[in-house]
Amino acid sequence: MKNRLRVLRAERAWSQADLAEHLGVSRQTINAIEVEKYDPSLPLAFKIARLFALPIEQIFSDDQAAAKAVE
Amino acid sequence: MQGTRKARSVLAIWVGVGMIFGAGVAASGLEGSDLLRFAAQAPAVWIAAAALLVLVATGVGTAWMNQIDELAQRAHYVAWYWGGSMALAVLLFIFFAGPALSHVIDFDAILTPLEDVYGRGAGFFAGVSVCLVALTLGYSGWWMLYWMRKQ
């Protein structure tokens, strides 16, 4: 699953540790999500969406949606 | 910050209980007491202590799982399923190949020293030990693989 977490974090000048602190998870989890090696649970995805005040689909998109957007 | 304050407090309590228990066992060893002889003389006390140890370990494990975040929990679930399954596969092989293995492996050399401690139960405890080692290796190995792949 693709995501814009790194961009959104950079816009706020937050480190991975800062974002991890806001979300109550470890820095390793933030890194794994950013490099797309781990898909967060729905509760964590909603938490991320609330933190950035964005709908979930503006942060996360599945590969099919990404491919459709390219077309 | 991971986990809730309550989960961390529960973990701290269980770790504290574990440390007190460990200190007790260590102290009884330091005094030069023969633990194995004690186990033979007071089996009920020994069994109760073993049950307490397992209870404390379960408490620490539960509190630990409740305070780590979802990726760390996922790593343990994956390790439990795949590492445990791989270990089970190895153990099943040993189980089914057992009659043939007894012609290849010198079980007497393994069991004779254990019989000094466990008596006629040596074979049983050797089997339990093999299960523990296999499961620990499978779990730890798979956990490490998963954790490294996600970094």
Give me the count of strands of chain A: 2
Helix coverage percent of chain A: 55-70%
Q: Summarize model confidence as the mean pLDDT of chain A.
A: 91
Instruction: For the record, give the distance between the C-alpha atoms at the N and C termini of chain B, rounded to a whole number.
Output: 19 Å
Radius of gyration of chain B: 19 Å
Distance between the termini of chain A: 18 Å
Overall mean pLDDT of chain B stands at 83
Count of extended strands of chain B: 0
Structural class of chain B: mainly alpha
- Please report the number of helical segments of chain B: 6
Query: Portion of residues in helices of chain B?
Result: over 70%
SSE order of chain A: EHHHHEH
Strand content of chain A: 5-15%
Largest sheet of chain A: 2 strands, antiparallel
Return the structural class of chain A.
Answer: mainly alpha
What is the count of helical runs of chain A?
5
Low-confidence runs of at least 5 consecutive residues of chain A: none
Sheet with the most strands: spatial strand order of chain A: 1-2
